[in-house]
């Protein structure tokens, strides 16, 4: 499978299941592969296969953590958007209130001067 195709699949999975989902799934698969390699290497007394299993387990765990971080970052991004939206709304309301107060004072000053 080409790298472009793999990237498209990962983006699609992340879009459907949430940010980092493809990393978490890939990481879990790699971790499970590593566990199997480690057990098989130990059983067959093959130190190279055992070591490869340990490395794959660690790589898989790292990929899962990367997926978690991506998911957490996406959550933070969404929360920041919400907060900024709320803040912007408050600022608009305050600006509107201030403009109305100024209009009222100008109108009152004009009425007092006549």
UniProtKB/TrEMBL annotation:
Q: Which InterPro entries match?
A: YjbJ_sf
Q: Which organism is it from?
A: Armatimonas rosea
Q: Under which name does UniProt file this protein?
A: Uncharacterized protein YjbJ (UPF0337 family)
Q: Which residues form a coiled coil?
A: 59-93
Q: What is the lineage of its organism?
A: Bacteria, Bacillati, Armatimonadota, Armatimonadia, Armatimonadales
Q: Which UniProt keywords apply?
A: Coiled coil
């Amino acid at each position: 499978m080409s790298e472009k195709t793999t990237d498209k699949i990962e983006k699609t999975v992340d879009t459907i299941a949430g940010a980092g989902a493809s990393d978490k799934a890939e990481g879990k698969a790699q971790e499970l592969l590593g566990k199997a390699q480690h057990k098989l290497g130990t059983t067959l007394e093959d130190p190279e296969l055992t070591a490869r299993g340990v490395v794959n387990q660690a790589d898989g765990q790292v990929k899962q953590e990367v997926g978690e971080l991506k998911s957490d970052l996406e959550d933070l991004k969404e929360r920041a958007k919400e907060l900024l939206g709320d803040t912007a709304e408050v600022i608009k309301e305050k600006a509107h209130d201030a403009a109305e107060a100024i209009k009222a004072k100008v109108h009152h000053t004009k009425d007092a001067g006549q």
